[in-house]
Design a protein that fits this description.
By secondary structure, this protein is an alpha+beta fold. The protein is built from eleven helices and twelve strands. Helix content is 48%, strand content 19%. Strand 3 and strand 4 form a beta hairpin.
């Protein structure tokens, strides 16, 4: 339902900083009209003994369902009046409205108050004059070797070993039986790579003590940080049999290997591509550090507080809606995240305020240019990229990306960026 703004009497009280309370009066005539409408709708669909469907008199409906009709009418009116009042007062709440002081008697006006938080107005008096150090980009040679090693592992092949005990890096197939309280469970097959945390350290050590086709009985203790809290620190009796072990044979680092990864002429060509990717990643990480330091300098020079409701919403967006998590654990997680969430909210507000006062918001032309850039890299048309962004509700995120880049370009111009 909708309520005309002219029908409402609205007053707004400003509380502490961002807190607002709206006092709303809905005329009795509007309440009566909504009550009659709901009564008519119910009379048209309700079935009562002695009446045909759709022919139940309104007086009978009122007598039978009067209290529930009143509650429904008030709920709908309060919601509609709240939305209209917000529109009329040009207010954008950032928290759920808290309804209070609802007063209504038949043939009288409906009055209620509703309190909520609005986005805080922050002042940023100092925007520059900071000295920020960009971290050095180094250690790329070691990372290059790590990437090459990982690529070789991905292209490696497993070969069986007929003798010897398993070692870290071996792929093993085992059967494990639980033997607790005199009961022997069914043997369960497992396949795992030793040394990668696929099993607890006790179990891996037990497996390493066996020869192929060998077995043994072991007492293992679950570590204190085991994911299943109920089993932390507990001991368990296991019978373990080793069925097979394999080791990974890596391909030679040669032209054939390079060509198997893509359009590379040889190892040198592959190394150059990996090196370029690592340098780009390192530069992006260094830029992220600079941005973070600049924002922190802004926040230190221009301290402000933020609504708890904004922090709570941010925490909820991070945690999502986890199923099966005990309420006390969820509360503990929220408490642990709150300080970081508050800092993140302050950063967001500072960026928004900077883009506003310096007029650095993304323009349509800049958005079009960015979409064309994405299209060129992906091989799709700009129209298709735009449609996909719009369908996935990611246009706003792209606009924010552009805005943030402009904000940080501005901030870097206002301060001194030194190299480590």
């Amino acid at each position: 339902m909708a309520i005309e703004g002219a029908e409402l009497q609205i007053s707004v009280e400003e509380g502490e900083r961002w807190r607002r309370t709206m006092n709303v009066i809905v005329p009795s005539g509007v309440v009566d009209s909504e009550r009659r409408r709901l009564t008519g709708e119910l009379a048209a669909r309700v079935k009562l003994p002695g009446f045909r469907k759709g022919h139940v008199p309104s007086s009978v409906v009122e007598k039978r369902f009067g209290q529930s009709l009143s509650r429904e009418a008030l709920d709908k009116l309060i919601g509609a009046a709240y939305r209209e009042a917000l529109s009329q007062q040009e207010l954008n709440p950032i928290s759920e409205g808290e309804v209070d002081n609802v007063q209504y008697e038949p043939d009288h006006d409906l009055t209620f108050s509703i309190s909520f938080d609005v986005r805080p107005e922050i002042e940023l008096s100092r925007l520059g004059g900071f000295r920020v150090e960009r971290p050095a980009v180094n250690g790329l040679e070691d990372k290059l070797e790590q990437v090459l090693g990982r690529l070789r592992e991905e292209k490696g092949t497993w070969h069986p070993l007929e003798e010897g005990k398993p070692e870290d890096g071996n792929l093993v197939e085992v059967e494990i039986q639980r033997m607790n309280d005199g009961e022997v469970g069914e043997a369960q097959p497992y396949q795992l790579v030793l040394g990668q945390g696929d099993a607890t350290p006790n179990i891996e050590e037990a497996i390493k003590s066996l020869e192929i086709d060998g077995s043994g009985d072991f007492v293992v203790r679950f570590p204190d940080d085991f994911p299943n809290e109920e089993r932390r620190g507990q001991e368990e009796h296991l019978h373990i049999r080793l069925d097979s072990r394999q080791h990974l044979v890596l391909p030679e680092l040669d032209a054939e290997f390079a060509k198997s990864l893509g359009e590379f002429e040889g190892v040198e060509d592959l190394n150059e591509k990996i090196q370029a990717d690592l340098e780009k990643e390192a530069e992006e990480q260094a830029e992220s550090v600079v941005r973070g330091k600049l924002l922190d300098a802004i926040l230190d020079a221009n301290p402000f507080t933020v609504p708890v409701s904004m922090v709570d919403r941010y925490v909820e967006s991070v945690l999502g809606n986890p199923e099966g998590v005990p309420p006390e654990k969820l509360t503990e997680a929220k408490e642990q995240l709150s300080p970081q969430a508050e800092h993140a909210v302050k950063r967001i507000l500072a960026i928004d305020r900077l883009s506003e006062i310096q007029e650095l918001g993304a323009t349509e032309e800049e958005l079009d240019d960015r979409i064309e850039e994405i299209a060129e890299k992906s091989g799709d048309t700009p129209a298709k990229i735009y449609a996909n962004l719009q369908k996935g509700e990611r246009l706003e995120a792209l606009e924010r990306e552009i805005t943030e880049r402009k904000v940080f370009d501005f901030l870097k111009e206002q301060s001194e960026i030194t190299e480590a």
